[in-house]
């Protein structure tokens, strides 16, 4: 199953989304170089660059913020990296068009920190967790997309059937959460519940922001494709 674009034509140039993708790719290549140079798994070194829950409050606010930002761009698996890039590229541009380039960038990072904060608040006390990946930020983007465009469908190619389908965006949002929680992080029986709080916190943060935003700027009405069709 390969989702490749939102239904309908779209000539909008999503500079912020593209910039986030480029930065994430550069971070991933940097991780590959570090792991190759030291011949050790990248997890060995991520604690030096990412946000670690047990260090929050022991370091300066600036250092904690920088660690939190870096955490959003880091990955530990190639599968997770590809999945995050695909979902950001699919859903980010439509939200960016509604919010604008700069506001979308701010939204992305605030949603990512919403995931961090949820983990800090609700993860088991005493655990020293290294927060990795943009799951919270992308969850926020998915929440905003579904709020703005609930009827939108995603054009999808299924190689085994050699056919194209239009599937609801909600299906892919649920798929993203399922993959993040039950596949990429070893499943709910592993005892690693931290990813759940990351996605949940990012999703709730994104929904809250887009709800407040639509109080001042109405969400697209009528034909859900009208504002993207040229």
Topology of this structure?
Layout: E1 2-6, H1 15-38, H2 43-46, E2 51-52, H3 61-73, H4 78-99, H5 101-122, E3 130-131, H6 135-148, E4 153-158, E5 163-168, H7 169-183, H8 194-216
Antiparallel strand pairs: 1-4, 2-3, 4-5
Helix pairs in contact: 1-4, 1-5, 4-5, 4-6, 5-6, 5-8, 6-7, 6-8
Based on secondary structure, the structural category is mainly alpha
Distance between the termini: 28 Å
What's the pLDDT, averaged over the residues?
Answer: 84
Second rung of CATH, namely the architecture: Up-down Bundle
Rg calc: 18 Å
CATH class: Mainly Alpha
Element order, helices and strands? EHHEHHHEHEEHH
Number of helices: 8
In helices, the fraction of residues equals 55-70%
User: How many domain modules?
Assistant: 1
Low-pLDDT sequence parts: 222-230
Largest sheet: 3 strands, antiparallel
Superfamily at the CATH H level? Answer: Rhomboid-like
Beta percentage is: 5-15%
Task: Please identify the oligomeric state.
Answer: single chain
Q: Which word captures the global form?
A: globular
Tally of DSSP β-strands: 5
CATH topology: Rhomboid-like fold
Biggest sheet strand order reads 1-4-5
Characterization of this structure:
This protein has one domain (2-185, 192-216): Rhomboid-like (Rhomboid-like fold). It is mainly alpha-helical. A hairpin with a 4-residue loop joins strand 4 and strand 5 (163-168). The strands form two sheets. It has a three-stranded antiparallel β-sheet. The protein has helices at 15-38, 43-46, 61-73, 78-99, 101-122, 135-148, 169-183, 194-216, and strands spanning 2-6, 51-52, 130-131, 153-158, 163-168. It is built from eight helices and five strands, in the order E-H-H-E-H-H-H-E-H-E-E-H-H. It is 60% helix and 9% strand.
């Amino acid at each position: 199953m390969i989702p490749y674009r939102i239904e309908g034509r779209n000539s909008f140039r999503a500079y912020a989304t593209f910039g986030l993708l480029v930065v994430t790719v550069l971070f991933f290549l940097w991780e590959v170089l570090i792991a190759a140079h030291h011949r050790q798994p990248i997890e060995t070194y991520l604690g030096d660059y990412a946000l670690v829950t047990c260090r929050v409050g022991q370091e300066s606010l600036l250092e904690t913020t920088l660690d939190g930002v870096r955490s959003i761009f880091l990955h530990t698996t190639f599968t997770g990296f590809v999945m995050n890039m695909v979902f950001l590229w699919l859903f980010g541009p439509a939200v960016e068009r509604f919010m604008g380039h700069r506001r979308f960038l701010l939204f992305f990072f605030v949603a990512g920190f919403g995931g961090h904060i949820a983990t800090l608040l609700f993860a088991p006390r005493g655990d020293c967790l290294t927060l990795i990946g943009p799951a919270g930020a992308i969850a926020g983007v998915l929440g905003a997309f579904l709020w703005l465009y609930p009827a939108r469908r995603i054009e999808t190619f299924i190689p085994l059937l050699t056919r194209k389908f239009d599937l609801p965006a909600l299906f892919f949002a649920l798929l993203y959460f399922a993959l993040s929680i039950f596949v990429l992080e070893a499943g709910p029986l592993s005892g690693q519940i931290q990813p759940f709080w990351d996605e949940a916190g990012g999703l709730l943060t994104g929904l809250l922001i887009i709800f407040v935003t639509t109080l001042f700027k109405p969400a697209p009405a009528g034909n859900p494709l009208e504002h993207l069709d040229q």
